[in-house]
């Protein structure tokens, strides 16, 4: 046999038949109160979440949760190497497997090549700076020229 029980509006405990009070608010909403304590605190307009013994407080502070619901399984993140815009995945793996001395030698060779190119350009122009690199003075648009 199933017994019809109500829930207390303040504590959310079950109210068994023959106990508690039914309070009708001004707007006509019925409120079931399980004890005189719950009635007194409701009339004082106390918030259930601030009363430690209520279910609302326990829910807010995560009390009484079962262990199975508490622990969530997380999937581990897998690191995947991807190709970058300038390099394919094979090129990246080749560079990673190269020794640091080899890479530093390559870098020095590239720097030497750039310096030689600059030296050749300087010798070709005769040490003069180009005229095109000098910017003309800016003239505002709203000023008339004579």
Keywords:
146 residues; two-stranded antiparallel ribbon; 36% helix; 8% strand
Question: If you had to describe this structure to a student in words, what would you say it looks like?
Answer:
With 146 residues, the chain is mainly α. Helix content is 36%, strand content 8%. The strands form two sheets. Strands 1-2 form a two-stranded antiparallel ribbon. A two-stranded antiparallel sheet has the order 3-4. The termini are far apart. The model has no long low-confidence stretch (mean pLDDT 87).
Query: What is the overall silhouette?
Result: elongated
**Based on helices, strands and strand pairing, what is the structural class?**
mainly alpha
Oligomer type: single chain
The counted number of beta strands is 4
Largest sheet: 2 strands, antiparallel
Percent strand: 5-15%
Q: Helical segment tally?
A: 5
Strand order of the largest sheet: 1-2
Estimate the helix proportion, in percent.
25-40%
SSE topology:
Blueprint: E1 6-7, E2 14-15, E3 21-24, E4 30-33, H1 36-43, H2 55-60, H3 67-70, H4 89-97, H5 100-125
Antiparallel strand pairs: 1-2, 3-4
What's the quick description here?
With 146 residues, the chain is mainly α. It contains five helices and four strands, in the order E-E-E-E-H-H-H-H-H. The protein has helices at 36-43, 55-60, 67-70, 89-97, 100-125, and strands at 6-7, 14-15, 21-24, 30-33.
């Amino acid at each position: 046999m199933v017994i019809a029980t109500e829930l207390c509006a303040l504590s959310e405990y079950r109210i068994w038949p023959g106990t508690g009070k039914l309070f009708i608010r001004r707007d006509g909403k019925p409120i079931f109160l399980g004890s005189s304590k719950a009635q007194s605190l409701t009339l004082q307009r106390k918030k259930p979440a601030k009363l430690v013994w209520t279910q609302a407080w326990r829910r807010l502070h995560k009390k009484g949760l079962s262990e199975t619901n508490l622990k969530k399984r997380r999937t581990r993140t897998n690191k995947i190497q991807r190709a970058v815009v300038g390099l394919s995945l094979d090129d990246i793996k080749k560079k990673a497997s190269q020794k640091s001395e080899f890479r530093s030698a390559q870098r020095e060779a590239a720097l030497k090549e750039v310096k030689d190119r600059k030296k050749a350009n300087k010798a070709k122009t005769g040490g003069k700076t180009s005229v095109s690199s000098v910017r003309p003075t800016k003239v505002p648009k709203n000023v008339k020229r004579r």
